[in-house]
Prior knowledge:
- Helix content is 47%, strand content 9%.
- The protein is mainly α.
- The protein has a single domain (4-75), classed as Fe(II) trafficking protein YggX (YggX-like), CATH 1.10.3880.10.
- The protein has a two-stranded antiparallel sheet with strand order 1-2.
- α2 (36-52) packs antiparallel against α3.
- The chain is globular.
Amino acid sequence: MSRIVFCQRLNKEAEGLDFQFYPGDLGKRIFDNISKEAWAEWQKKQTMLINEKKLNMMDPAHRQLLEAEMVKYLFEGHDTVIDGYTPPSDDQ
Length: 92
C-alpha cells in the first residue's frame, strides 16, 4: 500500500516516497512532506544543474550548493534556473 503525503512542492495530497533517499533531518523532512512526483521533477532538475554547472559531487561546496537549490525547489516554491536551458515553448 502506498503512503499519501501532503506534498509541499505540489501543494496537494499525493503518493509519498517509498524510502528516505536523502540522509539526516532534511531527508526525513523530504520523506514526510514531498511526493514521488515532486521528487522525480527535482531529480531531473538536479541532473541538469550538475551538468550545466559542471558540479563535482565529491566537492563539499558543490554538494552544499545543490542541497540549497533542492531546499529552495522542494520547500520554498522556487523553480531552479539553469543557465543556458530554454524550456520548450508551447508556441511550436
